Amino acid sequence: MYNYLLFIHILSAITAVAAVICYPIIMSSARTVGQAKFALSLLEKTAILPKLGGTLLLLTGLAIGFQETYLFRERWYVASIVIFLVILVIFAGLLPAGIKQQLKLLLQTQGDNLPEVYRLSRRRSAWLEVVANLAVFISILLMVFKP
């Protein structure tokens, strides 16, 4: 059973992490209102990936911990769960709210130039994406090297 859980855990991590890494790449390419609308709608559609992958990641990680109860005494394991919860808050709550706000701002925009209010909102989202990507990197380091 452990190997099956580990396999699902790794696939879930790939699904969730790929989406997390792609957010800033997709959004950094938007230069016009039309491109930004398309990029934001794409992110809305792909938002299921970090949610689904992240949920499976958490569930399989906890299941592995319940099979190997010593893990709950390991700092790297507990730190990975805490870091994951930070990522979850960002990708399940903060970024979707930012995406909706940015789309709303763009729908009110006339012309093709990105308004300054959108740029400010986008900077906040970009900062959250950097934090989430850093958290993902640290989480992967903890899981691979188990310090």
From TrEMBL:
The chain crosses the membrane at residues 6-26, 47-64, 76-99, 126-145. Keywords: Membrane, Transmembrane, Transmembrane helix. InterPro entries: DUF2269_transmembrane. The keyword Transmembrane applies. It holds the Pfam family DUF2269. It comes from the Bacteria. This is Integral membrane protein. The lineage of its organism: Bacteria, Bacillati, Bacillota, Bacilli, Bacillales.
